[in-house]
Every structure is written in C-alpha cells, then in structure tokens.
Amino acid sequence: MQILDCADKRITLPNKGSGSTSNNNNFPMGIIMRYILSLQLVATIFVCSITYAEGLMENKKITQLNLADLEAVELSAVEDYPFMQVIAGDKPVSSGLSSFQSSDGKLDVGFYYGSEVTLRISGWPVDEVMVFLEGQVEITDEDGESKIYGPGDMLVMPKGFVGTWRQLGPIKKLNVSY
After folding, report:
1. What pTM was computed for the model?
2. Assigned CATH class of 67-177
3. What is the location of CATH 2.60.120.10 in the chain?
4. Gap between the Cα atoms of 155 and 142, Å rounded
5. How many CA within 13 A on the CB side of residue 162?
6. Are 1 and 12 in contact (CB under 8 A)?
7. Distances (CA, A) of 5 to 11, 93, 124, 177
8. What are 79-102's pLDDT values in tens digits?
9. Could you give the count of Cα atoms lying within 13 Å of 163 in the half-sphere of its Cβ?
10. Checking phi first, is residue 160 left (phi over 0); if not, alpha (psi -120 to 50) or beta?
C-alpha cells in the first residue's frame, strides 16, 4: 500500500495489481481523472467569471480625477444613517462626488468634502481607501485607540468598522470604496 500526499490530503493507494492503474505508476486512474476534471472545472469557472466581468465593464476609457470638480457640488446637511450618526457639530455639511463607478456599482472612486463634525460609526458598509487632501480627522476605534490623519495620509477603513470619526475642521479626501 502507498500513501500519496495530494493537495494536503493523504490518499491511500492500492497495492500493485489490485485495480486499474495508469502506466504502472500505481495511481488508480479514477483518482487521476477526478483530479484532472476538478482542475478543468475550476479553470473553466475562473475563465468564464473573468470574461463575464469584463463584459460588464462598460467604461473602458481612462477617467481623470479632478478635485476642482468637487467645488461645483452643492453642500447638504450631514444626516444620520443606520451605520453613522452625528454626535457633535454645529449644523455640519458635506458634499461628495463620484468620479467613477464600475458598471456593477460595487467599485466607487470620488471625492468628499465635509465641515467639522463628529460621527459614531457602527458597521461601516464598505471597504474604503482614503487619501486625505486637506484638514484633519481623528479616528478612534472601539478599543479606544485614536489616531489623527491629515494631508497626505492614507488609510483603509474596513467594512464593519466601529468607532468614532471626528473632523477637526473642514476636510477633503479622495476615496475608493468597494
């Protein structure tokens, strides 16, 4: 009896002469064929998924991001959402501009402007990369760890984040979310 380590699984092979083998290698043909068919199925699903996703991407041109476009967006009052509540601020306002969105709506790239405000974050809804362009933000996680971010700083706020977001004054940021 032989032991074969295959993809971190131990497979016991029958002794020579006790079943169908391929080319005297003592590997039962059934195991090899199932492995090959499994690999082909995975490869086919992968290729079809990529082809389908590429077909969905309607925007195939370069999108230039221009911070000046944010100036034309009207400011509005910061409102509460299920994942975000205003806990301090004197009539805070904000504006946002989506410069690019994937055709499936999951990837979004844009700019944000906001006045001084403190928000309670309870389960941030997306994974978001942020690049701070102007102003400062103090972010405190649910363990009480706090850090101030300012111009040139970058971070990733993961989906599900819980904590406090305090804009120390007006801010502008570039954001990429998925």
Report:
1. 0.66
2. mainly beta
3. 67-177
4. 17
5. 5
6. yes
7. 6, 61, 43, 41
8. 999 999 999 999 999 999 999 999
9. 18
10. left
